[in-house]
Design brief:
mainly alpha
Length: 62
C-alpha cells in the first residue's frame, strides 16, 4: 500500500512545473498591480468576501 502512495518522478516534475508556473503568474500580477498579493489568512479573508463585500463570518452572524 505504501508503494501506491509514493509520488512518481513524473508526478513530482509535474507538481514542480505547476508551482513554478503559479509563482511566475503571481509575480506578473503583483508587478502589474504594483503591490504584493495577500498571503495566508489575509488571502483567505480577501477571497471569501462576495460581491456584497461581506465575509463568510459576517454572513453567518446575521
Amino acid at each position: 500500500m505504501d508503494d501506491e502512495r509514493k509520488s512518481s518522478k513524473a508526478g513530482e516534475r509535474a507538481a514542480e512545473g505547476l508551482r513554478e508556473a503559479t509563482s511566475k503568474h503571481e509575480a506578473k500580477n503583483e508587478s502589474r498591480m504594483g503591490h504584493d498579493l495577500a498571503k495566508g489568512a489575509d488571502r483567505f479573508e480577501e477571497r471569501s468576501k462576495s460581491s456584497d463585500g461581506k465575509s463568510a463570518e459576517e454572513k453567518q452572524k446575521g
